[in-house]
Amino acid sequence: MTEISETTGAHVRSGAAPGHHLRWNKVPEVTAYFWIIKVLCTTVGETAADLLNSNLGMGLTGVSLLMSALLIVVLVAQFRTKAYRPGVYWLAVALISVVGTLISDNLTDNLGVPLTTSTSVFAVALAVVFAIWYRREGTLSIHSIDTVSREAYYWLAVLFTFALGTAAGDLVAEKMALGYWVSAVLFGLAIAAVAVAHFALGLNAVLSFWIAYILTRPLGASMGDYLSQPTGDGGLGFGTVVTSVLFLTVILALVVYLTLTRKDVTDKEGVLNPREA
Hints:
The structure is a single chain. This protein has eight helices and two strands; from the N terminus they run ββαααααααα. Strand 1 and strand 2 form a beta hairpin. The N terminus is likely disordered. Helix 1 runs antiparallel to helix 2, helix 1 runs antiparallel to helix 8 and helix 5 packs across helix 7. The radius of gyration is 19 Å and the shape is globular. The protein is mainly alpha-helical.
């Protein structure tokens, strides 16, 4: 299989060496669809982890091993694709949401690591990933995830954003005891503040994106807890099964829509592309 080189117009093999820059970005364009599905995946990550851990009695260790194995399989499929595939990409996000949640929960519940410590450790780890990523690649832009190395840095950063968001969200909930819906509003306002800082005050686009990406984790978790937890605990009592199925259905519908319309696909020059070359 061949594709057209951006710079020369010559045909090149799409199965080129790992460092070869692909024509198409391996992640979606950041649109409203992106943020909606991201929050929904985050919510599912919270409720699915609770469902497998508590309702099915697998325990944190069993759930962690199962979900980590599934994540590895899906990430292998993601790395083997030559362009962004909505189904594979968002399945990876959903699974990494669960795994990131479980990493934080294991440290807190099984090892007794304080949330202040885990939050700090994950923040430093994420900063280190960004530093190495930028030093090696010269960019942190998600519009240029077109090599194996950049994609590896991207998914490692995503994993730590979920772990950090989980720890920071739990820390805020534990220290401030705001309740689920108030926490959701709080994190929603924080994301809105980042958007204002970016669009009105010129905050760096890359920094704005990753701050918002981290904040969507506690936002989605608060929404999931509010819907699934018993009314006596401040929730609506829908349960983890109903909540997970509801959000998964919406995610599936949106992913199918994006697969058919390709509204979130761009080439490396940022041009929306309805059809893959």
